[in-house]
Amino acid sequence: MSAEPLLHVVLFEPDIPQNTGNIGRSCVAVGAKLWLVRPLGFLMDSRYLKRAGMDYWQHVDCEVVDDWDHLLTRLQETIQGDGSGAAPRYWFLTKFADKLVWEAKFAPCDVLVFGSESRGLPETIREANAETCLKLPMRDHVRSLNLASTANTVMYEAVRQFGGLPEV
């Protein structure tokens, strides 16, 4: 993985190791860094996590942080440490958003934040960042979408918007 991730994908208190493993595999595919905010609903050595990530898990650029504030600090250090001096730009994915994913203007190094499978993002985080909350469209009959499917869709929409993956 390169020193500068194309995107930063945050899973806030994820519950299901298989989803995290699948998202990790997608992060490898697009060159994104995966951030996991504790508490996690599984152990990092979970066989389910490794199975879902298949033989790609050793390539996942992954950092586990203790809480939301620690994440914000680490992302600030990481993104500003890349030499660009840019502040991180966050997008929060929630079914409670008013804006659709297609309305966002994604850029390299953006931070995509996803909530846990059972609770989503906390209301305090959603309210503090209402202008950058996004959702995927879905009919009323569906309560929620699978986290790995949602993360995959949003990552590839971001990559599509800024012109695809760089040549490696």
UniProtKB/TrEMBL annotation:
Gene Ontology process terms (BP): wobble position ribose methylation
Residue positions binding S-adenosyl-L-methionine: 93, 115, 136, 144
Keyword terms of this UniProt record: Cytoplasm, Methyltransferase, S-adenosyl-L-methionine, Transferase, tRNA processing
Gene Ontology molecular function: RNA binding; tRNA (5-carboxymethylaminomethyluridine(34)-2'-O)-methyltransferase activity; tRNA (cytidine(34)-2'-O)-methyltransferase activity
Residues covered by the tRNA/rRNA methyltransferase SpoU type domain: 7-156
Catalytic activities: cytidine(34) in tRNA + S-adenosyl-L-methionine = 2'-O-methylcytidine(34) in tRNA + S-adenosyl-L-homocysteine + H(+); 5-carboxymethylaminomethyluridine(34) in tRNA(Leu) + S-adenosyl-L-methionine = 5-carboxymethylaminomethyl-2'-O-methyluridine(34) in tRNA(Leu) + S-adenosyl-L-homocysteine + H(+)
Pfam families, A to Z: SpoU_methylase (PF00588)
The enzyme's E.C. designation: 2.1.1.207
Subcellular compartments: Cytoplasm
Record InterPro entries: Alpha/beta_knot_MTases, SpoU_MeTrfase, TrmL, tRNA_m1G_MTases_N
SUPFAM superfamilies for the chain: alpha/beta knot (SSF75217)
Cellular component terms per the entry's GO annotation: cytoplasm
Function of the protein: Could methylate the ribose at the nucleotide 34 wobble position in tRNA.
Family listed: Belongs to the class IV-like SAM-binding methyltransferase superfamily. RNA methyltransferase TrmH family. TrmL subfamily.
Protein name: Putative tRNA (cytidine(34)-2'-O)-methyltransferase
